[in-house]
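To: structure desk
From: M.T.
Subject: fold request, one chain
Message: Could you run this one when you get a chance? Sequence is below, nothing fancy, just the single chain.
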Amino acid sequence: MAIETPRKTALDPMTLSPRIGSAYPAPYDAVSMDREKRSMGDAFGLTHYGVNIVHVPPGEGSAQRHWHTEQDEFVYVLEGHLTLIMDDGEQTLGPGMAMGFPAGEIDGHQLMNKTDQVAVYLEVGDRVPGDSCNYPDIDLHGESKDGRSMQFAHKDGSPFEDQS
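Reply: Done. Structure tokens follow.
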């Protein structure tokens, strides 16, 4: 896959254009409408894993609670406080705390910003083709053939109607 962004050797992540919101279909996109992701890995031409710096505004989340079949995820909190939500409850995370989510571990995770300050974290995930993303709390299922983009459907496989 060709990389459209020119390769950088060093950069200030805030100079990268953010992706605002998520690719989730409505109404599931509401949890992260104003979340900002800046794809640092793409700027450096990385192809085996992605690296994002993520800003989560107060009252929003990183994503819907989910787990991956093939993709490992790693998160490191840089600023602010986030609440990690998993099957066994919640844990408050602050700057310097890290977490990892191994592929195939059937325990959905989500980060929520329950504070009045923006939270910032570093997110690293591999780009394994054939990944499935499972959402235990909602009627959503994702498939990634290329290891980069996710195509969403209802859990029964039926497509979402265009709600625009």
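Reply (cont.): The mean pLDDT is 92. Let me know if you need anything else for the meeting.
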